[in-house]
């Protein structure tokens, strides 16, 4: 089977499981029904489910099928990711009107309720992690890793750097730090969660995390490139908006051609980390390698 067929089959099995788990388990019986509606509005709006799929791909790579408890712990990350998107879209942040093809949470429910829906999903993520039926030792490791990735030493720090520098030009190393924290940290955690649940040896984990970090960087460079190239309509919008806000992106800092080169180098490094780790420790890199096809 080719790598890409393997990924297609994997996604066909697990994306519906993730969607169903999220849909069926988002609490709808909270006292405040508008809050419940606002939380499920964004969670049910779809999305690629990349982060939980990466965690599940690590488990699959090591021959393990997720238990219901593991699926709950893994889906917690998608709740947290969805909170970050709701807050990122708020008028006080990016002020975006569309997300996942639908009106953003604050357009539909107002900024106050959208803030609370994000707060609710962030908290619920830790509820799912801590009440999931995985071992206490693994739960502690997962909670520690997720707080590191999502909090003030990870995603929130990256977002703060972004907010603070909206009107300042960053250097390339500074932009890299911003993206490693803002976007890369949750992708790092997605792979780390898989290694915790699969109980991989520390050297395997380190090799997979090196892959994850290059994956996260590539993901952001690719997103920056797509913002400029994806469609004439989007190109006009993104360019105007980014120029008006003096946004720090790879194309705005180094141009499109060099951004593409940086993307190619980063994807190649991710491949090398994975192939080397797999060859040293004797597992198949194919499924995780196939995830890199996302970048074309
Ligand atoms: C508000 C604390 C706080 C953090 C926000 C994630 C984030 C930090 C900002 C998102 C900014 C952004 C759009 C970055 C581009 C890369 C990215 C994270 C895209 C969204 O993730 P996808 O493509 O989205 O996985 P889907 O909809 O598929 O889940």
From TrEMBL:
The keyword Protein transport does not apply. Its EC number is 2.5.1.10. GO terms for molecular function: (2E,6E)-farnesyl diphosphate synthase activity; metal ion binding. GO terms for cellular component: cytoplasm. InterPro entries: Isoprenoid_synthase_dom_sf, Polyprenyl_synt, Polyprenyl_synt_CS, Prenyl_diphosphate_synthase. GO terms for biological process: terpenoid biosynthetic process. Keywords: Isoprene biosynthesis, Magnesium, Metal-binding, Transferase. NCBIfam families: FPPsyn. Belongs to the FPP/GGPP synthase family. This is Farnesyl diphosphate synthase.
